[in-house]
Amino acid sequence: MLNIYNSLSQSKETFKPIKPGKVSMYVCGITIYDYSHIGHARTFVSFDVIARYLRYSGYDLTFIRNITDIDDKIIARANENKESIHELTARFEKIMHEDFDSLGMIKPDIEPKATESINEIIEIIQTLMDKGFAYQGEDGDIYYHVPKFEDYGKLSKQNLEALQAGERVGVASDKKSPMDFVLWKMAKPEEPSWSSPWGEGRPGWHIECSAMSKKCLGDHFDIHGGGSDLQFPHHENEIAQSEAANGCCFANTWIHTGMVQVDKEKMSKSLNNFFTIREVLALYRSESVRYFMLSSHYRSQLNYSEENLKAADASLERLYLSLRDLDLSNLPEVSTDSDYLAKFKQAMDDDFNTPEAMAVLFELAKEINRAKSTDLERALLLAAELIELGGVLGILQQSPEAFLKSSSSGEDSDDSRIGQLIAERNQARADKNWARADEIRDQLQAEGVVLEDKAGETVWRRE
Predict the structure, then answer these.
(1) Fewer CB within 10 Å, N side or C side of the chain?
(2) 28 assigned to a ligand binding site
(3) Is there a binding annotation on residue 216?
């Protein structure tokens, strides 16, 4: 039975979908004006695994991850680059997809864009105005009136009076309350705009997700997710907008991922410890980066460091080494009665506990290594389990040779040259020219190539 920590109740709850056997999930995506960073990778790899496990558990999942393609930051960056907003967002959307593909993420079922949901945004805003939850300020902007929504703060547990007292003095004079937030901004010169009943303008950030989720999943759906930094004010404002407009519960379960630290400090451009996904993938194998992202529970903080990335790479290598030297071309079916499968499901049913699930993979790898020399049939059955369960986490889907011979830097040296050097070394050993044999081993070792002599042959892998 699947139990999920719900940020709304601040407790683990037994998951019960609105429609038996079907799950609807909306995850707040990226504002595409720059390269995606490792914080994005952590969040979206986590939700990729959640989606994979829901499907593995037999649910018919509809997974939505939006793209924010109109925003103050996007406008500012396009102006800075002297390019159109479309050119900027199209370029970084392509880069985002390439990065996410490198990390083995399955594409969402629908990937709505804010600019393609303007009609739905206007419709919700008009409903909020009709119901008295929104108003037009003196400058023409449309605001959501926060005090009108009695449940404001129920997700983030923020106190409205305390929030109002803490607001800075410089609040827009045409707001009825300091906490009110913009739903529709009136057009400014040289900015993109759309027609609306209130004049030319563009949407505020928060209303975009309320509109896109409704467009794709309806008024009420099962799971809403995102990084913990979105819990307030973004997700709080989404609840206020959607529940006021639709008159029903917005999302039953709220899932939030923990933040990434760098060497135990907050990741920040100002601290010069900010890493994009591309920068990290230039240094480490992409599957090892994915493994690292899953090595801590999704709700906990994740500490990015060279030491932790190298440890993740070494751990994944151990799993692949257990599969080496086995014929994986025709594996037996995995038994539903497997103790390892039961342990894996128990871990994942406990709020998607990937560290505990990974521990099961290492138990399997240990048993495979034991069985290789004594019971090949059992070794192959265990290998089938390891590959299937690894697939739920999005790992162990390459051939062992492909992974073990891939470079951590992503720049593989010539495999044929390595083969020639190994052949030369073997000849040197046959000629008892130990000095030359050791010289070649040391040369390859310096290039990050590890040689293993066994059963009369030499195999190699990269560190």
Answers:
(1) N
(2) yes
(3) no
**Domain 3-261 -> CATH class:** alpha beta
Q: Consecutive 10-residue runs of the chain (463 residues): their mean pLDDT?
A: 98 98 98 96 98 98 98 94 96 97 97 98 98 96 96 90 58 81 94 96 97 98 97 97 98 97 80 88 95 98 94 96 94 93 98 98 97 95 98 97 78 66 71 76 78 74 75
In a 3-state reduction of DSSP, which class is residue 51? Answer: helix
Peptide bond into 355 cis (omega under 30): no
Check whether 269 is labelled as a binding-site residue. Answer: yes
Classified by CATH at the fold level, domain 282-404 comes out as Four Helix Bundle (Hemerythrin (Met), subunit A) (1.20.120)
Q: By 3-state DSSP, what share of the chain in percent is helix, strand and coil, each rounded to 5?
A: 50, 15, 35
Q: In angstroms, rounded to a whole number, what is the distance separating the alpha carbons of residues 4 and 25? A: 13
> For the chain, which residues make up each domain, given as ranges?
3-261, 282-404, 415-462
- Report which DSSP code applies to 31: B
Distance between CA 61 and CA 16 in Å, rounded? 13
Q: Is 37 annotated in some ligand binding site?
A: no
Indicate the residue type of 121. Answer: I
pTM to 2 decimal places: 0.89
238 annotated as ligand-binding: yes
Report d(CA 106, CA 45) in Å as an integer: 9
